[in-house]
Amino acid sequence: MPRLSKSRIMSSLQCLKRVHLEINRKELAHYSRQTEAAFALGHQVGERAVQLYGRDGGTYIEYNGGRFAGALSQTADLMSSMFRIPVFEATLQYEGVLVREDVLLPVSEGGNDSWRVIEVKASTRLKPEYVHDCAVQAWVHLGAGHPLAGISLAHIDNQFVYPGDGDYQGLFIEHDLTEQVFELLPAVPVWVEAAREAVAGPMPEVPVGQHCTSPYECPFIEYCWPNDTRYPIAGLGGGKKKLGLWVMDGYCDICDVPSSEISGETQLRIHRVTLEGVPELLPGAKAFVESLAYPRFYLDFETIAPAIPRWPGTRPYQVLPFQWSCHIERAPGVMEHAEFLDLSGAPPMRALAEHMIEDLESSGPVLMYTSYERGVIESLAGMFPDLADALQAIIVRLVDLHPATRANYYHPDMLGSWSIKAVLPTIAPDMDYAKLEGIQEGVGASEAYLEAIDPNTSEERKEEIRKELLLYCKHDTAAMVRLVAFFANQPTST
Ligand code: SF4
Q1: Can you tell me which atom of ligand 1 is nearest the CA of 221?
Q2: 18 CB near ligand 1 (under 6 Å)
């Protein structure tokens, strides 16, 4: 009988093929940078929960390299002790299902001793799948012979404002899920049995579809979705449900799908251009860039959005810029460059805003790619009311290159994406982000910044990160310069 963890049961509820692969073919899994960052975040949030719930004592159950025997017996000892204290990562097993309970608090009511379980999540809202997660825990908890007074879900309150001095009281919001969880308990053994059969038997035949990214991104997407073709069908975009139906019909490449089966305007365009094999560049692109006055400012931020606020006055997941790059085009082809990066570890936002106000001068379009930069500047204006007028003056000069690109340009190699990282290799292969040494995308930039401001990071490493960050952010604005030049100089298709 294969042992299953709560995570595996949750995987099986998403897809029986996924749980089979996780146990039998784990080498096929591919975790995106975002997913790995989410795992790391979960650990950080869990550690903060231990500090908050354990302020009056408590024991954390360690485990080594997947050997749970020690963790199980230590948990059993603590739960049977007459000195009842909070237990963190309490490890319990029932019918071959193993759970680690984030927070286990002793409860005494009417002379009866019991426990309250709190599951901690890094998200900012209660999601339906959390009830299933808690139901598996409750089933194991009760099955292992321990009374359960209640089970709650604690998630981050994104309205919490950090007052400083390590005071994180109020960081979490708790939801009592006891009633919903107890209603679900009879279903848990059915889930467990289905998961066990999927693991022990041949690989279940599950077609790809919406469930591949919902409620979680599955690490086997590269394995299950067609990808050994020039233009994999996922690049057609639209809903995963419809794409999955096409895959079931045997269509693997965008070109396989008959146009009579496509109804969405964007999908039809992607399909048509891909079939024609010739990039589409409409006259609107050239007209758009010709309407831009000089000097032109090409602006890009790098930011962090820590789940656990670092600086007083900030909220969980608040987007906080620490760097910007700006290429300034005074006249056609006459370029200057300005930049800001603060790796001191102090809040960088104020100095960043002041330098930006100065370097972006008072007139000329400020080009960005997507509206992200607008949101960052609006947030800075909210943080520093005395700078709000000057920041607002920049906001009214913002020009978004993304919608103009989307409306006027498509290359089959973009595979359904108009992100700058998808567009750039098609117009400037020498500038492909994949060729950058070190940091190649935004998550990497955020992680590098946090590493650089960590007091344990050596000066040598910090310098290395500084160079990589400056290079990466400058690359982002240079990419926009190249895109505008491409639009200005290319003959257009009709
Ligand atoms: S990619 Fe989709 S079909 Fe394949 S295992 Fe994951 S969820 Fe299941």
Answers
A1: 1
A2: yes
Query: Domain spans of the chain?
Result: 4-199, 225-277, 284-489
DSSP 366: E
CATH of domain 284-489: 3.30.420
Q: Which two tokens stand for residue 114?
A: 């019991």
| Dist. CA 220 → ligand 1 center (Å) | 6
Give the up-direction half-sphere exposure of residue 406: CA atoms within 13 A in the CB hemisphere.
Answer: 13
Question: What's the confidence (pLDDT) of residue 1?
Answer: 63
Amino acid 492: pLDDT? 58
- Number of continuous H segments (helices) and E segments (strands) in the chain: 18, 14
The residue whose C-alpha atom lies closest to atom 4 belonging to ligand 1 is 224
Q: Is residue 17 within 6 Å of ligand 1 at its C-beta? A: yes
Q: What distance in angstroms lies between residue 340's CA and the mean position of ligand 1's atoms?
A: 43
pLDDT of residue 482: 97
Number of residues assigned to the chain: 494
| Distance (Å) from CA 45 to ligand 1 centroid | 28
Q: How far, in Å, CA of 230 to CA of 390, rounded?
A: 49
Pocket of ligand 1 contains residue 234 by CB under 6 Å: no
Which residue owns the Cα nearest ligand 1 atom 1?
A: 221
Low-confidence residues in the chain, pLDDT < 50: none
Beta bridge partners of 150: 116
Span 4-199: which CATH code? 3.90.320
Provide the sign of the torsion angle of the four alpha carbons 29, 31, 32, 35, taken in this order. Answer: positive
152-184 tens-digit pLDDT: 999 999 999 999 999 999 999 999 999 999 999
Quick check: helix, strand or coil at residue 486?
helix
The Cα 254–Cα 275 span in angstroms is 8
Distance CA 484, CA 480 (A): 6
Residues 6+ apart with CB under 8 A from 88: 49, 50, 53, 54, 58, 59, 60, 61, 102, 103, 104
Is the distance from the beta carbon of residue 13 to the nearest atom of ligand 1 less than 6 Å? no
Report CA(256)–ligand 1 centroid distance (Å).
Answer: 22
Three-class secondary structure of residue 92 per DSSP:
strand
35, 221, 225: residue to mutate for ligand 1 pocket, most atoms within 8 A of CB: 221
* CB-ligand 1 contact for 224 (6 Å cutoff): yes
**What local confidence, expressed as pLDDT, does residue 54 receive?**
87
CB atoms within 10 A of CB 448: 21
